[in-house]
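Posting for a labmate who doesn't have an account.
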Amino acid sequence: MRFVTYDGGGGPRTGIIDGETVRGLRAGVSLLSILNSGDDALTEAGEAATRCPDETRELDQVRLLAPIPRPPSVRDGLCFLDHLRGCYRAMGRSPELHEAWSQVPAFYFSNAGCVLGPYEDVPVAPGSTMFDLELEVGAVIGRGGRDLDPRTAEKHIVGYTLFNDWTARDHQLRDLALGIGMGKSKDSALTLGPALVTVDELEDYRRDGRIAIELSAAVNGDEITRGNLGEMDWGFGELVAFVSRGVDLQPGEVVGSGTVPGGCLLEHVDTPELDDFDRWLRPGDVVTLTGQGLGEVRQTVVPGVDVLPLSSGF
């Protein structure tokens, strides 16, 4: 099923997409509350929405929000290593990776409080002149767990959604220099949507044990990359298992795949100086991400707020 959070004028509600309509559950029921109600609760909610919806609305008459507008947490992996190699090349570095990248799947904590819906405008990160997109898929945890087995950890995923990890590359250069992880470069926005697509809906795309869906990203209608989720160097099973080491995963938490190779503007830099690159996102640009079975997110970049400088001038 394709679960959505939508607003038809009376506040956020949860429902399922059925053709060109949304079949809504009763007001006050959120997707997160359903996931926290037990293993079978999502299936039961979908069946209830199918049989006897509290309301039925035309899809083009409602505003789709992020399926989980405020996840308990968002962790973003880096599971396509060719993406990292491409970024290294763009920055004039050797594409050879440290052995640590083949030992564990890397991830960082993103800002769960800055989630945007699939068609919301995206403000440029404050003070950034090198704003970028990243084409990813987010896995949503449906059943909690701790110290999961890599062979079975994927069973804790209830579904998937498109994920755009908006990034301020100029701020990222400073974050990297500070050496303690991602900060303001990843803090202003991330997109989830348009729906939480349950795992069973994507089984026809499974190849060699992995969901192998085609993904693409475009800016102003010009495609910048096309790739396949099945080509992750670290699969979601291993990523989720590693994330769960020593911690309790909670229903509704989101774990990102990392960027599909070529799925950001940084990898297309064609000048030795990053700030001379003329294709960073600017107000008015329209960014579209598409995934087989997942749908499409389409967002317009808008101006950000002015920065109030620190004593250092930044």
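Reply:
Got it, the structure tokens are right above this. The longest strand covers residues 190-198.
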